[in-house]
Amino acid sequence: MTEEFSHEEESLKKVSGLYKDWFLDYASYVILDRAIPSVFDGFKPVQRRIMHSMRELEDGRYNKVANIVGNTMKYHPHGDASITDAMVGIGQRELLIDTQGNWGNIYTGDSAAAARYIEARLTAFALEVVFNPKTTVWAKSYDGRNNEPVDLPVKFPLLLAQGVEGIGVGLSTKILPHNFNELITASVSYLKGKKFELFPDFLTAGFLDVSEYNDGHRGGKVRARAKISQVDKHTLIISELPFSKNTGDLIDSIIKANEKGKIKIKKIEDNTSDKVEILIYLHNEVSPDKTIDALYAFTDCQVTISPNACVIVGDKPMFLTVSEILRMNTDHTVSLLQKELEIELHELQENWHFSSLERIFIENRIYHDIEEVNSWDEVLKTIAVGLKPHTTHLLRAVTEEDILRLTEIRIKRISRFDLDKFKENIAALEGRIEQTKHHLENLVTYAINYYLNIQKKYGKGRERKTELRIFDTIDATKVAVANEKFYANFEEGFIGTSLKKDQFLFDCSDIDDIITFRKDGNMKVVKVEAKTFIGKDILHVAIWKKNDKRTVYNMIYREGREGPFYMKRFSVTGVTRNTDYPLASDAKGSEMLYFSANPNGEAEVVTVLLKPNPRIRKNKMEIDFSEIGIKGRDSKGNLVTKFAVKKVDMKEEGVSTLAPRKIWFDETVRRLNADARGTLLGNFKGDDKILTINSQGEAKLLTFDLSNRFDDQFVVLEKWRPAQPITCIYYDGEKDMYFIKRFLLENTTNVQTFMPSEHPKSFIERIIVSDGATAEIIFAKDKGKDREPEMVIIDEFISVKGIKAIGNQFTKFKVKTINVTVPEPIEEPEIISEPEENISTEDDGGTIGSLFGSVDPKNE
């Protein structure tokens, strides 16, 4: 038994040992030799071997990629397909490899042609920055036949410029690419001891929100968006892509979202070639602004990317931030520059040393002393003796190797010896030696100049492509297309999308939430489902919006079976789904006698008829809901009567009792909001509009819907005042003079153009949307004479005319500048803010809210 136990223990130990060793060996190999890049040169092993192989073959001409791949296989112990794919990836980044032929398309995702059909060579940038055999540390290749670099001596933060993605055993890396010029600027700032910030930049451009980038560290994230703009009210265009997506990915995701009913489009066209152009055609009834938001919410037009900067430092993987990587790269570059300078100094000093020896050897005719010497040893000894009196000023002692080199000087060179040229050469060497020493003494300044020179030579055309901005949060429920038919059986108490034999209520989205009210005074919010039991005697069903303070519910109810009658007004801004909320009373037998849902806070007048009772003189009373304050849903409300009520009838529809909404414009996200972010535009009522005017002379009126987008640049964006004339001072390029016009806009959503001249040199000088403005005209010199400035009161200078009018000539003289003074705007009177509801905002974690829709069976 003892022997058997020992044998079993020994076997288990061996298996575990093998497993442990083999797995760790494999994991280390994948991490160090395949998947994770080095922090110093920014290359994975396959990329480093490709670059080294290209340098071996470099002769200034293009090489077939198949030949480069074949040469790389001397160093890379894997198949040619992996080498080709890695090389195409480097080539598509347009930094290190100068490509020729079809290398694929980063916009469409089309793959490159076969390796035998495409060609490549190193760029001038790669030749200058990536290679230097003198500072390279070498190691044997996998078969021991060749030497390959451990790390290429890259003097640039290449890892951050190109970005990288890889998956190892238990580790992965994802470093996003950054802008070429911004990396150099950051390196220079670091060397100067200044702070710097780095954010990703992509070849596919698009928009990027880096508010949670966290310096590229684990746990951070960025959001990338396609650039979507409106061609006209029925057409959208995608002209830039989010990082990691191509046009095929985008179109597939859009088609899937359309099939699922999340968005509603007519058709989509892909016209992408060297530029991205995806056209999306909309149905007549579809809002372009809402569709843009829906594309960001439901398709790959917006993606979230989580960076994970894992790199190899020495022989170990480390998780770093982008700033740490840049600092390490910059320090490494300074170290490489120092090595290069030290090597250069040594070479210059050796050159100066031998040139000095050569001059001594020839000028003092030491070569004559060896003419009669018989043995080689005596020749060397004679030269050494002849040199000795003249070598006290040399940098080091004369070696036998130096003497051997002197014996190799040709007679032709000795016969043509020119002392003056030797002196010039030595003086030039001494100058270069001093310069190199100066660079070594001022290494940081030298490194800064090196970076700036790189930027000057290669930075042109590498400006930032991805626009940084803070994204607005898109509520998916507000932009989802109504893709479901919703029905209800009011008597039996069922609602849902499958009850097609029952009463149709409205169209909704499958991510909407439905609010229901029952006759017993209970309210419940549920998700859109095929069939849901709510409870018998449903009074009202509608789509519900979370945090909606403008929808106000009016109700009259009885407390218990025989209790008094109360009335109240309330909003529902936050609830827990699938929970019954008693709005009337917990008392058994409570009942709603009257209920109305008012999307804009309307307050109607109702007539309450009381049952005959000898104790009361008057059995009819009127109630005006506008006299009741809007409170929380849990409030008891105001007493109507203690006597029995026969029925409640509506007498008169009411108007909104809510105050006008204060609307702000947030320049950061370029959206309207009611949360006091940005510039206050004013107090808005139902028909009020936003006025926008651009520099091309196009005016547009938009509603103050918070989903509207304002991605274009406007010279005017404010609340529209219909009676306020708009003044335009413009230069007519054809007539070579300034004009002024004043006009009113029509109340239409169509674009209204007011720039009369289409001449290419015409331009708008100033748009004024205010009374009482003045303009000071500063004239240019006319035949060397100065003209006194002229002050113009604009309201008196020209009357209001039609929008198509040319206007009046502003001045017949040449204008230098026009200085416009506009009086301070008159602030709108302060309004009383909408009442806040003291209400629970607890949620079960789901998304709540969407478009408003409702049906009240008693009003059918």
Structure overview:
With 860 residues, this protein is an alpha+beta fold. The protein has 6 domains: 1-31; 36-154, Topoisomerase II, domain 5; 222-305, 2-Layer Sandwich (Gyrase A, domain 2); 334-458, Topoisomerase, domain 3 (Orthogonal Bundle), CATH 1.10.268; 482-658, Neuraminidase (6 Propeller); 661-821, no CATH class. Helix content is 27%, strand content 26%. The protein has a 5-stranded antiparallel sheet, with no helix packed on it. A hairpin with a 4-residue loop joins β6 (164-167) and β7. The termini are far apart. Residues 1-13 and 832-860 have low confidence and may be disordered.
Number of domains: 6
The CATH H-level superfamily of the largest domain is DNA gyrase/topoisomerase IV, subunit A, C-terminal
- Tell me the radius of gyration: 41 Å
Helix and strand content put the structural class at: alpha+beta
Low-pLDDT sequence parts: 1-13, 832-860
Report the CATH topology name of the largest domain: Neuraminidase
Secondary structure: number of strands: 48
Chain-wise SSE layout:
Elements: H1 2-35, H2 45-57, E1 63-64, H3 65-72, H4 80-92, E2 97-100, E3 119-122, H5 124-129, E4 137-140, E5 147-151, H6 158-162, E6 164-167, E7 172-175, H7 180-191, E8 207-209, E9 222-225, E10 227-232, E11 235-240, H8 247-259, E12 267-270, E13 278-281, H9 288-298, E14 302-305, E15 310-313, E16 316-319, H10 322-363, H11 376-387, H12 400-407, H13 411-415, H14 419-441, H15 443-458, E17 467-468, H16 476-479, E18 484-489, E19 494-496, E20 503-508, E21 513-518, E22 522-527, E23 532-533, E24 538-543, E25 552-558, E26 565-570, E27 581-582, E28 591-598, E29 605-610, E30 620-624, E31 630-631, E32 638-641, E33 645-652, E34 661-666, E35 671-673, E36 679-684, E37 689-693, E38 698-703, E39 716-719, E40 726-732, E41 737-743, E42 752-753, E43 763-768, E44 774-779, E45 790-793, H17 794-797, E46 808-811, E47 815-821, E48 853-855
Parallel strand pairs: 8-17, 26-31
Antiparallel strand pairs: 1-3, 2-3, 4-5, 6-7, 8-9, 9-14, 10-11, 11-13, 12-13, 15-16, 18-19, 18-20, 19-23, 21-22, 21-24, 22-27, 24-48, 25-26, 25-28, 26-32, 29-30, 29-33, 34-35, 34-36, 37-38, 37-39, 38-42, 40-41, 40-43, 41-46, 44-45, 44-47
